[in-house]
Amino acid sequence: MSATRAAVAAAQRIVVKIGSSSLTTATDGLDSARLARLVDTVAARVAAGTEVVLVSSGAIAAGLAPLGLVRRPKDLATQQAAASVGQQALAHAYAESFSRYDLTVGQVLLTAEDVVRRGHYRNAHRTLHRLLRLGVVPVVNENDTVATSEIRFGDNDRLAALVSHLVGADALVLLSDVDALYDGDPRNGDASAVREVSGKQDMVGVRAGSTGASGVGTGGMASKVQAARVACSSGIPVLLTSADLADRALGPADVGTAFAATGARLSARRFWLAYAAGASGRLWLDEGAVAAVVDRRRSLLAAGVTAVEGEFHGGDVVELVGPAGTVVARGVVAYDAGEFPELMGRSSFELPPEQRREVVHADDLVPRR
Ligand SMILES: Nc1ncnc2c1ncn2[C@@H]1O[C@H](COP(=O)(O)OP(=O)(O)O)[C@@H](O)[C@H]1O
Ligand SMILES: N[C@@H](CCC(=O)OP(=O)(O)O)C(=O)O
């Protein structure tokens, strides 16, 4: 067995994400029998001493049937209404099902703001940790009823990766309606399962589509691969498989696709900076500056900035972009956007003393992995 699978099997704290397609159907709403099977599996792992945080999708899908809708609505207001009805049903079903094992659940509905703003991030962190200490199984979803299209996670795979870091999970398990990552969408015919992903080389030639078969999920396999990248690059291994194989995923971890952790654990601040914070603008860098900040982990100086985009202020998070337009890092900028015309391309000794400090200090900068 790979070290990744051994790590998932031995994890003391685990985030389990389940997709809409595994809990609901567009026509019948919530599938209580499938939900109960998932709860059986999670409860067994809790009984074995593991702390589990559940990230559950399905609010919008569960709200369709009670509202007489036959497919996921396209407009935001009806999606929010469906989520309001469906989340209620989902929370009730989990509370009842976990009570069979004398387990208490706590509903945690997060908006993107809760992780984008650093103060809110700390708040969510505190609540989740306290719930775990109290022996509660937190059941997390996006707060769809108030999320608007501009500020939303969009898919719960990304939310699950962020929550994994928030709670300091040892592993993330993504449960969907497909048993593994394939080199192409298995609905389109011949495709081979990818069993282990230990780096970029294992993803060469893999096409992860952004839609699913069920019509109720969001993001398809593309969002799961992206979420796995976020978790792995901050030290959290990921196992991806189908909800039908949940008992083996949470048992010997001998199914699905295992994504190895590729980076060291990031501190809460650096993780927030790298993956959670919203960027207010972009700084374009020349080649020399890219090498300095990415390879040599130096601070960014004004001399290496060639252009700026966006309306930002000193203290905001910005993306650092290389000459080809690729994001190479994110960081907290020290100056307002309006100050850059005077600063760009100039060496420190050409600038007045008050403008000689770094544009982005090395401590406030996280290269893209
Ligand atoms: N390369 C791939 N490997 C596996 N599944 C894929 C791939 N590309 C696209 N898919 C599709 O992604 C779907 C899962 O995504 P989605 O419906 O969003 O699930 P969920 O509701 O669990 O989040 C699968 O049903 C599958 O058809
Ligand atoms: N927050 C939404 C889920 C969005 C989502 O990502 O769904 P899925 O792709 O099924 O995990 C809901 O509960 O309906």
Report on this structure.
The protein is α/β, with parallel strands linked by helices and 369 residues long. It has helices at 3-10, 32-47, 59-64, 76-99, 112-116, 118-133, 156-166, 220-233, 246-249, 268-276, 287-295, 340-343; strands spanning 13-18, 24-25, 29-30, 51-56, 105-110, 137-142, 171-176, 181-182, 193-194, 196-197, 238-242, 257-259, 281-285, 305-309, 317-321, 327-332, 365-367. Strand 15 (317-321) and strand 16 form a beta hairpin. The longest helix has 24 residues, at 76-99. The protein is globular, with a radius of gyration of 22 Å. The two termini are 27 Å apart. Adenosine-5'-diphosphate binds at residues 19-22, 176-178, 181-182, 184-187, 207-209, 212-214, 217-221. ATP binds at residues 17, 176-177, 218-224. It comes from Saccharopolyspora cebuensis.
In short:
By secondary structure, the protein is an alpha/beta fold.
CATH topology of the largest domain: Carbamate kinase
Q: Tell me the CATH superfamily of the largest domain.
A: Acetylglutamate kinase-like
The CATH architecture term of the largest domain is 3-Layer(aba) Sandwich
Query: What proportion of the residues is helical, as a percent range?
Result: 25-40%
Small molecules in complex: adenosine-5'-diphosphate, the ligand N[C@@H](CCC(=O)OP(=O)(O)O)C(=O)O
